[in-house]
Design a protein that fits this description.
Number of domains of chain B: 3
Distance between the termini of chain A: 43 Å
Number of helices of chain A: 9
Radius of gyration of chain A: 19 Å
Distance between the termini of chain B: 58 Å
Number of domains of chain A: 2
Radius of gyration of chain B: 28 Å
Structural class of chain B: alpha+beta
Largest sheet of chain B: 7 strands, mixed
Largest interface: A-B, 79 and 82 residues
CATH class of the largest domain in chain B: Alpha Beta
Shape of chain B: globular
CATH superfamily of the largest domain in chain A: Beta-grasp domain
Oligomer: heterodimer
Shape of chain A: globular
Strand content of chain A: 5-15%
Number of strands of chain A: 5
CATH topology of the largest domain in chain A: Ubiquitin-like (UB roll)
Strand content of chain B: 15-25%
Helix content of chain A: 40-55%
Largest sheet of chain A: 5 strands, mixed
CATH architecture of the largest domain in chain B: 2-Layer Sandwich
Chain lengths: 210, 805
């Protein structure tokens, strides 16, 4: 019960506005350090000064993980820096590129743009969770990408693979047009789009044949 | 028979790690006790740091230490040279200092508590403004730094009369430009030309923005530095990092297993990669220096923009007979050299025979410029192809018997080409073959009827581009060991930035040794495991340079395998052949496992205890480390060869331009390459299409725009300078290659990373011009700019203005 209350309190306290301020503090702060300012409070230093970590339980890749999180901590940061799940990449930290895409209750989300503390009681799946931990068997999407030689630098690959996974769950028979629409929230700077789309279509084909 | 390894699709051996989250990029490494570092970036485009009061920042709980310019830089230089930190920033976003703290938020809060006293200095964004009499300079010393004996700053200005032309949107006729060359008889060629056109063209700058920002993690253990870096080239970066830290390269472990793209911005690493190991050495703790996307915009490099004038002369049959080119380059805060390669490539791509180039590179208070995938070449091809195409169409309208594609074929070079001021020759040229094959795949002939067709508000345009770029180099080392497990271990000192070359450059070597791919192990990304002297992974060199180097090492290994077999089994060494991991001949057969074991017993040159004298000093320590582990193949590429190595990319595009909104939709794209022997078709096609799409982003969706009053960037993130996404490209694209070996290299393969950018940009700009019926002569082709031109409205910018988006 105490947990439920604290979630409510946190969500009120950390609105979208304070979320953005918090992200600025870890992301873009240096830009706003204008000259001769007497210790500006532009960044909402309060988020850091008054912040206290809270121990919460997250369901990540099917496991209950207990972790201390700051009120303004994003899921991508928790995964990368507290749970050592570094497969979730930070490409922009501002919902522009999709490299941090994870599944939350089966739906693809940008991990940089959701607070960790909002995820109590919900299921998070990261790129590390797709491979069968016991057998090493890859997911169908991963199999398709491996077979088709998908991606170049592959920094965007985990995010794309999570979006492909969500897409196939929602639409097992996508056309190439539908697939590229479903994946359009992810950016590939190598612009390997043609091959990525081929991987997605191959994954759908493999899924149908299972 | 062992399988063929050249010309087939084999998924790279690191792919499984990339798609399971196991692949570690620099920011994925952790060390016990690791702390964080953040930089304070200059809020001004040019200023002097009069004072820094960090007392409140340093008093903040959790803050560990600070680095200032004086802590990290060597002797101050009068030259326009970039340093890791500076007390005189020359662009908005240039790092002034760095703070280490227990976590990133504390770093950020500490930086907010720093009291800076900055003295604003004059700044300039548009290069032409710095050429104007009395105009501002990017550096306090002047706007040109001249090297040589009387090295120093000068104040290079054009005249008031020149600026009457500039203000009217015309390029003046500048005298004594810092760069100039002329070949043939340009004046006579123009006098004899049947058709001449002149255009003013502006090409924007573009930020590289690789997906992975340039983060670094570093720590020291017993005086040895361990640095985890995002770099394009591993072995070269190790040497650069050792110099920056003033340590012996062998006392440094550089790890770069995976790099999330570079596109020229991380060639030998990058300027700021040494901050983390320096801070770590100072505070005695591991340091994570995470770079954000926002920071990447400033310190992550950009392609130089051009303000140009070009005059092209043609014979009635469509042959280009003269080019007169002026380029004013936006060189950023610390200089760039794209304009020189741009001029050379103009001469190479259109073979005018008579050409004059005048260039001036201008420093500006904008983020630093660096090579970006096809530096100079991508800009000039994107600029000149639509002009060439417009010329041919106008000549046709005037009754001359010319055709768009035939004229381009006529102007493309053949193997005997000599280009640029030094009449550079090439090893092989199959440019016409690539253009012709691409035209057939695209159905250029069949699509002629679509050109200019309007349905509703949408007009169709078709276009193409033919783009060359450097594609190789010679003389690097290969290093490999067949271990007693019978497997070939290939040691790679090149980087792993997404080109798959760590695997693909080893394939011809493994094929020579008669191995199946599952008998080959690639070792890369960790300098402590051994790295031969390697090329920088830039200039599209790697495929050419390291198929050769690895092939040379494989020939050395083959020679030793035969010697071992003949000593063990009898008969002449040359009577022994390798296949499927065995060596067989008159005396019988041995497995490679047995050969490796025997090589260790024999010692000497067989297992690397004795090394050949010709290999590089940089290779020796790695080879010594691997000695005694099996049969070693180690050699320098001594195949030699004359001529520069260039590859070619043809690109064909079909677009629809909405004349009511100014939006351009790319509906079809075909790319065709001349890159010699194809090693990995699927990866080649990815390079062709990916590079072409980058070129389209450069020409259309990415922007480089500043607030002219305060000199700060307006387009500093993905959403304001957006690279193409899934919905910006066709849902199916096609790529291919002529696949004709370069006769001067044993494997026949040349690189292909770079030519595609110009091909994509040119195909797009030419197709848009085809749809509009006129050349915009400016990038980016934003809907606003297109609409203003279509509707003939007065433009809110001058024809020659830079930084318009």
């Amino acid at each position: 019960m105490a947990d439920v209350e604290s979630v409510g309190v946190l969500e009120k306290k950390y609105s979208r506005r304070t979320f953005i301020k918090g992200v600025i503090a870890t992301g873009a702060t240096v830009s706003s350090a204008s000259y001769a300012l007497q210790g500006t409070s532009l960044l909402g230093a309060a988020t850091f000064q008054s912040s206290t970590e809270r121990l919460i339980t997250l369901n990540v890749n099917g496991q209950q993980r207990r972790v201390d999180v700051l009120p303004n901590e994003t899921l991508a940061m928790t995964l990368r820096y507290k749970l050592n799940l570094t497969g979730t990449k930070l490409g922009c930290d501002r919902a522009e590129c999709g490299a941090c895409t994870v599944l939350i209750d089966g739906v693809n989300h940008y991990g940089c743009s959701i607070f960790t503390h909002q995820l109590r009681g919900r299921s998070v799946v990261t790129i590390e969770g797709l491979e069968d931990a016991d057998t090493g068997e890859l997911s169908i999407v991963q199999e398709a990408v491996l077979e088709q030689g998908g991606f170049q630098c592959a920094f965007c690959a985990p995010g794309f693979i999570m979006s492909m996974t969500a897409m196939l769950d929602q639409n097992p028979n996508p056309t190439r047009d539908e697939a590229r629409l479903a994946l359009s929230g992810n950016l590939c700077r190598c612009a390997d789009y043609d091959k990525i789309l081929t991987c997605a279509m191959r994954a759908a084909e493999l899924a149908r044949s299972v | 028979m062992a399988e063929r390894l050249v010309g087939v699709d084999i998924s790279p051996p690191d792919l499984r790690a990339k798609i399971t989250g196991r692949a570690k990029y620099a920011e994925d490494f952790r060390a016990p006790g690791m702390v964080f570092m953040k930089m304070l970036l200059s809020p001004m485009p040019h200023c002097r740091v009069r004072n820094v009061d960090a007392s409140r920042a340093l008093a903040l709980p959790g803050v560990i230490d600070i680095l200032r310019a004086s802590d990290v830089n060597g002797e101050p230089s009068d030259r326009p040279s970039e340093t890791m930190l500076t007390d005189e920033p020359h662009y908005e976003g240039e790092p002034i200092l760095a703070i280490a703290a227990v976590d990133e938020e504390t770093c950020a809060a500490a930086i907010e508590l720093i009291e800076l006293d900055l003295e604003p200095l004059p700044f300039v964004l548009d290069p032409l403004e710095s050429l104007r009499p009395g105009g501002p300079n990017a550096h306090t010393g002047g706007n040109q730094y001249v090297g040589g004996q009387d090295a120093g700053w000068t104040d290079y200005k054009w005249t008031e009369a020149d600026f009457v032309a500039v203000d009217a949107g015309q390029m003046p006729d500048p005298q004594d430009t810092p760069a100039a060359w002329e070949k043939g008889d340009v004046a006579a060629a123009f006098a004899a030309a049947d058709y001449i056109r002149e255009d003013v063209v502006v090409h924007q700058s573009v930020t590289h923005h690789p997906m992975e920002p340039r983060s670094t993690m570093a720590y020291w253990e017993n005086g040895r530095a361990f640095v985890y870096v995002s770099t394009q080239s591993a072995q070269v970066t190790k040497n650069g990092m050792a110099r920056a830290l003033d340590v012996d390269p062998e006392e440094l472990t550089l790890v770069s297993e995976y790099t999330g793209g570079g596109f020229g911005s991380k060639i030998g690493g990058h300027t700021h990669m040494s901050l983390a190991p320096i801070m770590s050495r100072k505070i005695g703790r591991p340091v994570m220096h995470r770079i954000t996307r926002y920071e990447e915009n400033y310190i992550g490099r950009a392609r130089p923009g051009f303000q140009s004038w070009v005059k092209m002369g043609f014979r009635a049959d469509g042959k280009c007979t003269a080019i007169d080119l002026i380029i004013v380059q936006e060189s950023g805060a610390y200089g760039a050299s794209d304009y020189n390669s741009a001029a050379n490539i103009a001469d190479l791509a259109f073979t005018p025979g008579n050409m004059r180039f005048r260039g001036v590179a201008m420093l500006a208070n904008t983020p630093p410029k660096a090579a970006q995938r096809g530096p100079g070449g991508a800009q000039i091809i994107g600029m000149l192809e639509p002009l060439h195409d417009a010329a041919i169409r106008e000549m046709s309208e005037q009754g001359m018997n010319v055709d768009r594609l035939q004229a381009r074929l006529l102007n493309a070079p053949t193997a005997d080409v000599e280009f640029g001021p030094r009449n550079t020759s090439l090893t092989s040229v199959f440019a016409r073959e690539a253009l012709q094959a691409g035209a057939e795949a695209f159905d250029w002939a069949g699509k002629q009827a679509l050109s200019g067709r309007q349905v509703g508000s949408k007009v169709t345009g078709i276009g193409f581009g033919l783009s060359p770029y450097t594609a190789g180099s010679r003389g690097y080392d290969g290093l490999m060991v067949i271990r007693p497990d019978g497997r070939l271990h290939v040691y790679q000192g090149i980087g792993n930035l997404g080109t798959h070359s760590i695997a693909d450059t080893a394939r011809p070597a493994a094929e020579l040794l008669g191995l199946n791919w599952d008998q080959v192990e690639i070792i890369w990304g960790d300098s402590s495991k051994g790295m031969p002297r390697s090329s920088i992974q830039a200039g599209s060199q790697t495929t050419h340079a390291h198929t050769r180097a690895n092939y040379a090492a494989a020939e050395d290994a083959l020679r030793k395998i035969r010697l071992v077999a003949s000593r063990q089994l009898g008969g002449s060494p040359n009577a022994y052949n390798v296949d499927n991991g065995r060596v067989s001949g008159p005396g019988g057969s041995m497995t490679f496992a047995q050969v490796a074991q025997r090589a260790i017993e024999l010692g000497g040159e067989f297992d690397g205890n004795t090394l050949p004298s010709g290999i590089s000093d940089q290779t020796v320590p790695s080879a010594q480390r691997l000695a005694g582990q099996g049969l070693m193949g180690v050699a320098t590429d001594a195949y030699g060869g004359n001529g520069s190595i260039y590859s070619w990319q043809a690109g064909f595009a079909l677009v629809e331009l909405d004349v009511e909104t100014g939006m351009v939709e790319l509906l079809e794209f075909v790319g065709w390459a001349d890159c010699g022997t194809v090693i990995h078709p699927r990866s080649l096609h990815a390079q062709e299409l990916g590079g072409s799409i980058q070129g389209m982003g450069m020409a259309m969706s990415q922007r480089w725009v500043f607030d002219p009053r305060y000199g700060v960037s307006f387009a500093n993130r993905f959403y304001t300078a957006r690279p193409p996404g899934f919905l910006d490209v066709p849902k199916e694209m096609m790529a291919g290659a002529v696949n004709i070996p370069d006769p001067t290299t044993p494997v026949g393969a040349k690189g292909i990373g770079e030519p595609s950018v110009g091909a994509g940009a040119a195909a797009l700009t030419t197709a848009v011009a085809d749809a509009m019926g006129k050349c915009l002569c400016r990038t980016p082709l934003t809907p606003d700019i297109i609409l203003a031109e279509l509707e003939g409205r007065p433009l809110p910018y001058g024809r020659l203005d830079q930084h318009v988006g």
